[in-house]
């Protein structure tokens, strides 16, 4: 331990065993010891005493659309990773679509990695994409280090990333199961969407009716059936419909290998509060009713939902029109996800340990990132220093993501990120950022 370069001390360190006063030593970017609070600081080490602020493991956000290259005017690695850092997120995994090219071949992955390399303020990994015609690319992408494969079961919103029909889903899933990979799925059923009333226009109630619960529930049922048949690993992205939870519980009880995520906007915003024309609230599947939100929280509490990720998916402001049918669907949540979730979690009686489990430990586990997700010896020294009892009003001007559109504008949230640390270096504090020091991550082989 005499080789410790840095020592962080807090009266509230969130560890896998619970929250306690502790002293955390760091060497070469890794945690080398978690010691009692009054442990002696090793000679030559720099002490950072954060007092009563909470020291928590840097969050791992496995669902981010960076859109770089190709739609960099929507978002880019520079801005997205700054927003992440400002929000206490130290690792993000980029979705394979909305950039041009999409991450659907090894060549495209290399292009994305080249673009990200010098702009990453946090560590960055990549999901691959499963398209109707790239089944032969999947194993190569897996070997090149993508963390798994995303597929849509209904139109994705961009032409270059077509969805899979049931036959194509079966083929892709069989291929991925062949190397025990992970398929992550946007689960809305196209037939149910097509038969739902499509009125368009600015009324949120009309938009909600156009993306009904049963579109999600049906698609999830199909996915679970395929996963069961192939004994494949699947992950349900951005679950919004609480009605699908009994299906998921039943599948798990039968041994189906399924994990589930939901998002801050489903947990903290309700359909009842969305103003007409306010397409900063538009995402697919949609933000649903308050009663549905209670089901999602109950499922987080009982473990049916594993984790919470942002699904940060921005566009330029001009695409956020007042017509819910044609406005870009996506909510920008990176910088605000921790305080947004924490604000609602504390109101519902959850502890910060729960939030850390949902947003760091379990997301790291989803991606197989054994070096992330906990304050524990041997893991990366990624931290957020967090003041959970301080409040702030959301001011879009203070957001770091490229287009400062947010569904949280004006809300008062609990929890201020004081500083964020990546592998033992403070990368942001008080709105001041260091030069990018994130590295590109690949799936552990
Ligand atoms: Zn997404």
TrEMBL record:
A single MF term (Gene Ontology): cobalt ion binding
Q: Name one GO biological process term.
A: purine nucleobase catabolic process
Query: Could you tell me which Gene3D superfamilies the record lists for this protein?
Result: Metal-dependent hydrolases
* Cofactor(s) required for function per UniProt: Zn(2+)
EC number(s) reported in the record: 3.5.2.5
Question: Where does this protein act, in terms of pathway?
Answer: Nitrogen metabolism; (S)-allantoin degradation; allantoate from (S)-allantoin: step 1/1
* Keywords, comma-separated and alphabetical: Hydrolase, Metal-binding, Purine metabolism, Zinc
Q: Cite the Pfam families for this sequence.
A: Amidohydro_1
Question: How is this protein annotated for GO cellular component?
Answer: cytoplasm
Span of domain Amidohydrolase-related: 54-425
Q: Which family does it belong to?
A: Belongs to the metallo-dependent hydrolases superfamily. Allantoinase family.
Record text on subunit structure and interactions: Homotetramer.
Tell me which PANTHER family the record gives: ALLANTOINASE (PTHR43668)
Q: What is this protein called?
A: allantoinase
């Amino acid at each position: 331990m005499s080789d410790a370069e840095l020592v962080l001390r807090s009266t509230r360190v969130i560890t896998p065993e619970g929250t306690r006063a502790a002293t955390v030593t760091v060497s070469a970017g890794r945690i080398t010891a978690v010691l009692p609070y009054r442990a002696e600081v090793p000679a030559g080490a720099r002490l950072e005493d954060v007092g009563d602020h909470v020291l928590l493991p840097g969050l791992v956000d496995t669902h981010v659309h960076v859109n770089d290259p190709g739609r960099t005017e929507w978002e880019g690695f520079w801005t997205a990773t700054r927003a992440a850092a400002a929000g206490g997120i130290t690792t993000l995994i980029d979705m394979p679509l909305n950039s041009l090219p999409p991450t659907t071949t090894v060549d495209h992955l290399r292009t994305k990695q080249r673009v990200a390399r010098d702009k990453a303020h946090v560590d960055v990994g990549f999901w691959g994409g499963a398209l109707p015609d790239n089944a032969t690319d999947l194993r190569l992408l897996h070997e090149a280090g993508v963390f798994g494969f995303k597929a849509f079961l209904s139109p994705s919103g961009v032409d270059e990333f077509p969805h899979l029909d049931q036959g194509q889903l079966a083929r892709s899933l069989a291929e991925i199961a062949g190397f025990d990979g992970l398929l992550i799925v946007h689960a809305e059923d196209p037939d149910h969407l097509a038969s739902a009333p499509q009125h368009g226009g600015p009324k949120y109630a009309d938009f909600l009716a156009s993306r009904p619960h049963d579109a999600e529930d049906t698609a999830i049922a199909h996915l679970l059936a395929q996963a069961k048949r192939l004994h494949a690993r699947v992950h349900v992205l951005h679950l919004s419909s609480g009605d699908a939870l009994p299906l998921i519980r039943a599948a798990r009880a039968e041994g189906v290998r399924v994990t589930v995520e939901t998002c801050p906007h489903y947990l903290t915003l309700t359909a009842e509060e969305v103003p007409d024309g306010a397409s900063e609230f538009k995402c697919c599947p949609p933000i649903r009713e308050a009663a549905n939100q209670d089901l999602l929280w109950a499922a987080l509490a009982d473990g049916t939902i594993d984790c919470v990720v942002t699904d940060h998916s921005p566009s330029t402001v001009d695409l956020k029109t007042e017509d819910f049918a044609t406005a870009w669907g996506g909510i920008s949540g990176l910088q605000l996800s921790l305080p947004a979730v924490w604000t609602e979690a504390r109101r519902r009686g959850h502890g910060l340990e729960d939030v850390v489990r949902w947003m760091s430990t379990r997301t790291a586990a989803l991606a197989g990132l054994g070096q992330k997700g906990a304050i524990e010896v041997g893991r990366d020294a990624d931290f957020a220093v967090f003041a959970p009892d301080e409040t702030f009003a959301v001011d879009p001007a203070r957001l770091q993501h490229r287009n400062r559109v947010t569904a949280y504008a004006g809300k008062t949230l609990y929890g201020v990120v004081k500083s964020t640390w990546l592998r033992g270096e403070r990368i942001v504090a008080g709105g001041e950022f260091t030069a990018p020091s994130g590295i590109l991550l690949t799936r552990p082989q």
